[in-house]
Amino acid sequence: MNIGIDIGGSHIGVGLVGSSGKIINKKEVDILPEDKKNIDKKIITTVEKFIKQILKEQDITIKEIGYIGIASPGMIENNCIYNVVNLDLEKLDIAKPLEKEFKLEVKIKNDAKCAGIAESMYGSTKTAQDNIYLCLGTGIGGAAFLSNKLVEPRYRSGMEFGHMIIQKDGRECKCGSKGCFETYCSMKSLKRQIAETLELPNSLSGTEIVNEIRKHFNDLRVEPVIKDYVQYLAIGIANLVNIFEPEIVCIGGSFVFISDLVIPKVKEEIKNKKLLFNERKELKIVPAMLGNDAGIIGAASIL
Ligand SMILES: [Zn+2]
Fold first, then answer.
1. Ligand 1 centre from 148 Cα, in Å?
2. CATH number of the domain that residue 162 is part of
3. Distance in Å, CA 164 to ligand 1 centroid
């Protein structure tokens, strides 16, 4: 058993995960805007409290836990998290206090990679030794697996699929570059464009906007936005397929809620425009299946 922790921009989840990837016990809390003062201390004390609660409820001791894994956004260097934009945090040094408190090894990995690990071991891509995981959410993250092994560069986290440039002099990206994949294909970008087109009120939540996208998917007004989105997504996915030649491309993030509508169109676009270098009978693009638990499960399954 390992402890998996998922630190998101608006939510913290801590779970006890069994050897088959099953979550045995889970505690979660939302991070509210008013929590953002001293957020680093709050995250650490919340995580410690949740771990202790879980151990108590399951009637086990810390000695029965293998390690503590953390799925986190931001940049990870020397087991420390830097530049978590959504939490306005320059640095989150969470490994040291947890190691000190629980006398356990703490492993930290990028959240998209953790979700990819979970899908690869227990979810949509478990049958595919070579696969790509693509998270379409606020931004775009991802992971690549070749022969069941996560592809990882030695010195930097890499796999910044979201900052692959797919349009010369395109939309400005928060990374400082222009035309990045995520400025066209993140769910945030799609939601913003649909909300503008349909003149939706600003008060709508992300889930409500997704419902509006589903409701108006075939509307004439929305058609050009969807068409553009599909074309750019097809280019991004085709680029990744041409580089990694995965057996399956798995897409997670809030995209899963519109995947049944969009994936067939993307597959058609890739086929019609002949975007793949190597011909294949069928390109398998599937939605992720572990949902919000993927971060916790993946963090508890880091090798
Ligand atoms: Zn960028």
1. 28
2. 3.30.420.40
3. 7
pLDDT in tens, the chain (303 residues): 999 999 987 789 999 999 899 999 999 998 887 887 888 899 999 999 999 999 999 999 999 999 999 999 888 888 999 988 777 888 999 999 999 999 999 999 999 999 999 999 999 999 999 999 999 998 999 999 999 999 999 888 889 999 999 999 999 998 899 999 999 999 999 999 999 999 999 999 889 999 999 999 999 999 999 999 999 999 999 999 999 999 999 999 999 999 999 999 999 999 999 999 998 999 999 999 998 899 999 999 998
How many domains does the structure of the chain reveal? 2
Q: For the sheet containing 131-136, what is the strand order?
A: 149-150, 140-146, 131-136, 248-252, 284-287
Structural domain includes residue 120 = no
Helix/strand/coil for 228: helix
Q: Which two tokens stand for residue 265?
A: 């169109």
Helix, strand counts (H, E) of the chain: 9, 13
Does an H or E element contain 221, and which? none
Distance between Cα 182 and ligand 1 center (Å)? 7
